[in-house]
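TICKET: design request
STATUS: open
ATTACHED STRUCTURE:
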């Protein structure tokens, strides 16, 4: 059967099926024709009997270049180019470059590949001829804020404080060197360390002993002595207490002797020796009996080993010259004469020196001032060596003083 009819809907169309047998060969294309089919042959086929069943010689068109030899491949209807030295490729279209014709830079080594040479570049360089200097820092190999410095065939990382290692990825332990002194605790931190000092030390490394006297804890002029972890106050006289803050009772030790009265003061004391018979800072010295001035009426006091003696002025008597002798009370002068005692100071003035024989037994007597300026006396014993002028006497008279004693 050559023709078939197919019913599609209400119409019957005639379909030519002559190309169904695919009589065209060697990759030729069959086109249906109303009367006959026709083969359009490929480049490699020859139109023979209109079925393209004959193949052309693949090497007929000289596909190989550069004087290469074209060889047909049996049964495959293709060819193979045998390239002369220095060329490569399917049709020998590529000229081969050898290592001797190029120069690898920066120490690169040339390696001959089948088609062209290849430069094996050292670290830090790239490119066909190793002409490009690679930036090793482009990949950010340095960590933790480090600065990357590109170098020939490498890089260097400059670490910030607290890090170390080629890439600054290792934290530095600043406490490894044991910088803290005096058993302080070292606290490691990024890029630094902190010393936790014990109570008695200070400083960055706890290297300084704390001066407890720095705050001046001692009072009232006391001297502060610094010690390890402590201080001591040396108090001045008159103060006690840890900080010398208390006024001490200097009389507590009873420094006054022989019944002297101790008077406490600030930082000091004094001894009142009144009535004790002693003198001195602590009433330690026996006071001479005459210091109390026991003799009266300007009498002279003379100390002895355990007593004293009062030397009376004329006209006074008694152990302390306290008794006044009035011998003129009897008015012994006659004929209107005036009786004058020999002893009263108010009459004769004070004698600068008193003879040792001028004592109570001799402290008596009087003189009479007569109208005729003659001196009448009872028994004259001896003439006195003293001559005394009296304002009560006549101004023209010089009367020799005679010492009289009663019989």
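STATUS: resolved
RESOLUTION: sequence designed for all positions
ATTACHED SEQUENCE:
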């Amino acid at each position: 059967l050559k023709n078939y009819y197919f019913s599609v809907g209400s119409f019957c169309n005639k379909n030519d099926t002559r190309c169904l047998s695919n009589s065209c060969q060697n990759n030729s294309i069959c086109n249906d024709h109303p009367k006959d089919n026709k083969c359009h042959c490929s480049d490699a086929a020859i139109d023979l009997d209109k079925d393209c069943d004959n193949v052309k010689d693949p090497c007929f068109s000289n596909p190989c270049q550069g004087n290469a030899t074209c060889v047909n491949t049996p049964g495959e209807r293709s060819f193979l180019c045998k390239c002369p030295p220095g060329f490569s490729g399917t049709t020998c279209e590529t000229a081969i470059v050898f290592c001797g014709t190029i120069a690898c830079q920066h120490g690169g080594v040339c390696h001959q590949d089948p088609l062209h040479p290849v430069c094996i570049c050292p670290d830090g360089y790239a490119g066909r001829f190793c002409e490009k200097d690679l930036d090793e820092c482009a990949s950010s190999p340095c960590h933790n804020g480090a600065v990357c410095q590109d170098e020939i065939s490498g890089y260097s990382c400059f670490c910030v404080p607290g890090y170390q290692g080629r890439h600054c990825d290792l934290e530095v332990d600043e406490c490894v060197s044991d910088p803290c002194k005096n058993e302080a605790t070292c606290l490691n931190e990024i890029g630094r360390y902190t010393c936790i000092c014990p109570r008695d030390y200070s400083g960055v490394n706890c290297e300084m002993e704390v001066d407890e006297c720095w705050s001046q804890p001692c009072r009232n002029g006391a001297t502060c002595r610094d010690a390890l972890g402590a201080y001591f106050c040396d108090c001045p006289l008159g103060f006690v207490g840890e900080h010398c803050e208390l006024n001490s009772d200097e009389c507590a030790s009873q420094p006054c002797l022989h019944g002297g009265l101790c008077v406490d003061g600030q930082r000091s004391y004094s001894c009142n020796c009144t009535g004790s018979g002693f003198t001195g800072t602590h009433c330690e010295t026996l006071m001479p009996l005459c210091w109390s001035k026991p003799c009266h009426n300007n009498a002279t006091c003379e100390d002895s080993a355990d007593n004293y003696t009062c030397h009376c002025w004329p006209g006074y008597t008694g152990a302390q010259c306290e008794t006044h002798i009035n011998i003129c009370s009897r008015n012994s002068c006659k004929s209107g004469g005036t009786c004058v005692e020999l002893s009263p100071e108010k009459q004769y003035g004070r004698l600068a020196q008193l003879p040792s024989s001028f004592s109570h037994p001799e402290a008596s007597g009087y003189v009479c001032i007569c109208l005729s300026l003659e001196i009448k006396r009872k028994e004259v014993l001896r003439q006195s060596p003293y001559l005394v002028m009296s304002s009560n006497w006549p101004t023209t008279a010089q009367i020799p003083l005679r010492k009289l004693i009663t019989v």
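CLOSING REMARK: The two ends are 223 Å apart (CA to CA). Helices lie at 345-348.
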